[in-house]
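Key result, reporting period 2: structure in, sequence out.
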């Protein structure tokens, strides 16, 4: 059990409390489907138009529409009007700050998938500034890398 989070303080023993206000569960309520994650991936890749989202993730228009609406309602994307010459005004979808904050999650899923599911992946991310490959890594506020076995779960003071 060296690779598990340790319960600390009021949270130990684990059987003494319930994760009723779990941030993981709340986050999954917002981004709860494969389609939603793929739409976010495409938004990070610069996709903004409805038709492009639907085509690039291979979803039907009704499913794409429903998931985009959910992401907008949740505050991860906003709709902005745009107009191409000679065309009617349409809406494009743009990441909000809240949506952009999910980038490390998408990178972590990509990294995990590259390692465990698909022979190293088809694409990778590089830092524009130096060309180094980007990876997700957990660190404490003092900069130390951490593993689950080096982690304690504490109750927030405000809880």
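The corresponding designed sequence is given below.
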């Amino acid at each position: 059990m060296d690779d598990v989070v340790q319960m600390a303080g009021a949270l130990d023993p684990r059987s003494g409390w319930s994760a009723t206000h779990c941030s993981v569960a709340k986050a999954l309520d917002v981004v709860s489907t494969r389609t939603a994650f793929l739409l976010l991936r495409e938004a990070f890749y610069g996709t903004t138009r409805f038709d492009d989202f639907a085509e690039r993730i291979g979803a039907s228009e009704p499913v794409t529409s429903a998931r985009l609406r959910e992401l907008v309602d949740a505050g991860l994307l906003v709709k902005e009007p745009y107009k191409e010459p000679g065309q009617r005004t349409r809406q494009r979808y743009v990441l909000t700050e809240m949506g952009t904050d999910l980038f490390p999650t998408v990178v972590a899923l990509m990294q995990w998938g590259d390692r465990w599911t698909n022979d190293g992946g088809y694409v990778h991310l590089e830092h524009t500034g130096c060309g180094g490959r980007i990876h997700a890594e957990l660190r404490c506020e003092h900069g130390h890398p951490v593993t689950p076995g080096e982690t304690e779960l504490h109750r927030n003071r405000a809880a």
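Residues 21 and 159 are 9 Å apart (CA to CA). The two ends are 28 Å apart (CA to CA). This case is discussed further under Risks and Mitigation.
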